[in-house]
Amino acid sequence: MSEVSVKAHGFQTHVPTSIPKLGVVEKMAYGMGDFSANIALGTAVLFLTYFYVDIYGLKPEHVGIIMLLVRCVDAVTDALMGALADRTKSRFGRYRPWMLWMAVPFGITTAAMFITPDWDYAPKFAYALGMYFISSLFSTATGVPYCSINGVMTNDPADRVSCQTYRFVFAGLAQLIVSMAVLPLAEFLGGDDKAKGFQLAIACAATLGVIGYILCFAGVKERIVPPRRPTSMWTDFKEAFKDGQFRAMLLVTGLNVLPGFIGSGAVMFFCVWVLGQDSTFSSIYISSGLVGMMLGCMLAKPLSDRFCKLKIFFWVNIIAALMSFGFYFLDFSQPYVVMGYNIVKTVIASVSVPLFWAIISDVDDAHELKTGNKCTGISFSSNLFCLKVGLALAGALVGFLLSFFDYDAQAEAQNADATHGIILMVSIIPGVCNLFIAAAVKLLKVDRATMVKVQRDLAILRSKQMQAEQQGVQL
């Protein structure tokens, strides 16, 4: 068994491992999975609320109900999908094959969300609700295994952060394509028919999503295959939820999604009604934020090589909160000044994104050391459960706040209350959420020094488990 040298808090130790360092090609292939997911998720976050309200003709409060209902149900299916993936047996591994099996249905249902049947209001609402739910099911069937696979590709903490950096750079690239291309492409393909333009543009994006998942499947490997105890799905869930660190991570996850997705859900309304700009500027504004996100993600690896990623995660949220509060006081008659400030704020906030997912893997490893049972699918799906509950709250909050502040999609100009509400959704409200995240991070104990010891002890435990399995003995 080889060893990986790990340095933490001024001391150095050697973590025994049989996992080689991951190559750039495999990390890029891993990143293609989130590229695919964000072709769909990025589209939904950036445009779906706007599409449903201003083009499809649904009432804002009804869009909020759709977001809330589907995301809550979807969160439950995530947890079940994680348990199913943990129990999958195939020549491709536990998690990889799902990206192959579900890629095409994922693409088809993503495109179908933007179909606009010419029906009465009630059937239109039912169609939007149904298609959003079906699309979310296939997103779960690809997304949960994808998120889980990083935990079995490598056990090297530095490689895990590096993989997550590649992942979110590719995710940012997908969102950049969506934000830059969807509106112009929709106008080009649809002309005066906005609905048709959106349908064709999203169909192109969904095709790229299918290709990305297939490339991810082909390019990554599952290397960590620890023996599984013959426990039931219910036992695995109960055991996981008894772990205080597991529960603390779920709280962080549920909160962590709120700042970005509340702001993203309101950004189109902000560009149009507060900054008073057209779709071209809106695309540039959204794209510049995505470039900032990618730059922030790329800073995560060098920073985490030098400092404890848990501490970085805490301070990034504190600084992001302060910058969000500052955003409220900007002069919105200067749109390019606002855009520049938003880029800087996004760079800082996005440093935490790769670290967040790497910390989930750390909590999963610490749980395995406590119980002797690796349930990566349950770990990541439970966190996705909380993430999607957060998404449901964020999406619903945007719709409900628009309704509360008397937003009128047909008005030539919004009233002062509606404008102020939109500003709050891109500044004060996300900032408050960042402060709650920072408070929740203090509950986590998987700092750098702790994880060095966990990885060392875990390698020994896995070696003993393998020996016991070969001898037909259950530890």
UniProtKB/TrEMBL annotation:
**Keywords, comma-separated and alphabetical:** Membrane, Transmembrane, Transmembrane helix
Is Signal among this UniProt entry's keywords? no
The answer to keyword GTP-binding applying to this record is no
Q: What's a Pfam family this protein contains? A: MFS_2
GO terms under biological process = carbohydrate transport; sodium ion transport
Q: Which superkingdom?
A: Bacteria
Which InterPro entries does the record match to this protein? MFS_2, MFS_trans_sf, Na/Gal_symport
Molecular-function annotations in GO: symporter activity
Q: Which residues cross the membrane?
A: 35-53, 65-85, 97-115, 127-147, 168-186, 198-220, 248-275, 281-300, 312-330, 336-360, 380-402, 422-444
Q: Name one GO cellular component term.
A: plasma membrane
What the record says about family reads: Belongs to the sodium:galactoside symporter (TC 2.A.2) family.
- Protein name stated in the entry: MFS transporter
Q: Which organism is it from?
A: Candidatus Anaerobiospirillum pullistercoris
